[in-house]
Amino acid sequence: MPRFAANLTMMFTEHEFLDRFAAAKKAGFDAVEYLFPYDQPPEAIAERLRAQGLTQALFNLPPGNWEAGDRGLAALPDRAEEFRASIDTALRYAEATGVGRVHVMSGLASRQDVTALTAYRDSLRRVCDAAGAQGLDVVIEPINTRDMPGYFLDDFSFAADLIAELGLPNLKLQFDIYHRQILHGDVLMGLREMAPIIGHVQIAAVPDRHEPGTGELDDARILRELDALGYEGFVGCEYRPAGRTEDGLDWMRAFA
Ligand SMILES: O=C(O)C(=O)[C@H](O)CO
Ligand SMILES: [Mg+2]
Prior knowledge:
Blueprint: E1 3-7, H1 20-26, E2 31-33, H2 42-52, E3 55-60, H3 80-97, E4 101-103, H4 114-132, E5 137-140, H5 156-166, E6 171-176, H6 177-183, H7 187-194, E7 198-203, H8 219-228, E8 234-237, H9 250-253
Parallel strand pairs: 1-2, 1-8, 2-3, 3-4, 4-5, 5-6, 6-7, 7-8
Helix pairs in contact: 2-3, 3-4
Ligand LPHNJNCV binds next to loops.
Keywords: Isomerase
Protein name: Hydroxypyruvate isomerase
Organism: Thioclava nitratireducens
């Protein structure tokens, strides 16, 4: 049975961010993830995790200026210095929270741009080296370009080939089922083919990104496939609740 992590960026938004940890615990979660913790002191996050007995499943490196349109820095040659600084920031929060993996966002660039591809490879080597020294995995996630137009990493096969080419032992795939369906479909075969390199999974219904089981996929069948494949990582619940978060959790309890 997969271990579900509440995504506190998208769920429990009825509460202030630091109050979402208690809300997630009360709703039955033992793990959390979110996009970015950087608006809070690391100690404040660590205290919430400790007080609620929660495990930190994942968070992202700083993405640049999200409000200004940045969606990560790793493939942006002219932002290399900022990317290097983002690694140090993320590792400070990783130390405080005990997270086991961090997600590196590529940024908006073309995979046909050789300078972007070179920057991306260099960035992944750098972050995997620094994160590995702290016992952390690094995950990269193909994201669909309907939700994120111009995102550099928009193909699962490209991501898998790059992971194989770089051969970095702590570089793994963040398999977001929502993006997989939109980009390629073929979700079960994708899971079977990429199981050896999957470092994190996320789920949301397609196309509305609401609770699993409310879209076009048989999400219960997909979760059973993760069990059958022996996946022992987390499944991040990265969906927008259709109503109050607490009222929409029956789908998860079917797996309890
Ligand atoms: O967009 C997603 O699915 C993610 O998981 C990124 O981390 C945030 O955009
Ligand atoms: Mg995702």
